[in-house]
Task: inverse folding
């Protein structure tokens, strides 16, 4: 099973700032089968990024994904008030696994 | 418009069997490449993938829960059913179903709103 480790656990930032979230895999993720999801309290996760760098339908371009192999990054270029949430990475190359999440909170 | 909705008991007793139903619309599980998965999330914790069923009736399970899970589909009703045996308080979680388009990758592009299941005597 591929273990995904996200860092930091919590990111305290102000609106307008840049957020950089990391996801590290215990072994290489095949074909960049890495996705990112956003989850707000009481809601289901929402797909943001798939294939490591492709934005899902309707996702603003302030969200971008990068990386390959074992190291992946989600960047939010300028935080909007609605972006404060928990973010999960997920690999779907083999038996799917999720990271433990990064909470982006208002500073 | 793709939608999924989970249904099932809100409360189950330890050792009982949980049966959850995912009712979906906007796609068909008879279409090549379509799949539905179950994922759960204990309160305040991370997401955990449980099982997947494909358009061709192939089934996949979490290694750690394989002996307790059964997934099935009723294509005519647009439903996927998950059963989990021998429920324990640690199985208390929100259970989600989600769609996968296998040939597009395998990520979860649409999710249900989730159903909270509490395991307690």
Result:
């Amino acid at each position: 099973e591929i273990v995904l480790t996200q860092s930091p656990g919590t990111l305290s930032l102000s609106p307008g700032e840049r957020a950089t979230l990391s996801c590290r895999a215990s072994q290489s993720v095949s074909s960049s089968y890495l996705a990112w999801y956003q989850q707000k309290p009481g809601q289901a996760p929402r797909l943001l990024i798939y294939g490591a760098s492709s934005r899902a339908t309707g996702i603003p371009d302030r969200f971008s994904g990068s990386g390959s192999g074992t190291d992946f990054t989600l960047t939010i270029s300028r935080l909007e008030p609605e972006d404060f949430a928990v973010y999960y990475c997920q690999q779907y190359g083999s038996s799917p696994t999720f990271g433990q999440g990064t909470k982006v909170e208002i500073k | 418009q793709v939608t999924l909705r989970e249904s099932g008991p809100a409360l189950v007793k330890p050792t009982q069997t949980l049966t959850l139903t995912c009712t979906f619309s906007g796609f068909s599980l008879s279409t090549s490449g379509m799949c539905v998965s179950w994922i759960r999330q204990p309160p305040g914790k991370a997401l955990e993938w449980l099982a997947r069923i494909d358009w061709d009736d192939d089934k996949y399970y979490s290694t750690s829960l394989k002996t307790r899970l059964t997934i099935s589909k009723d294509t005519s009703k647009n439903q996927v059913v998950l059963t989990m045996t021998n429920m324990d308080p640690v199985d208390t979680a929100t259970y989600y179903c989600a769609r996968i388009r296998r040939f597009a990758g395998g990520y979860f592009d649409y999710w249900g709103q989730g159903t909270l299941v509490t395991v307690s005597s």
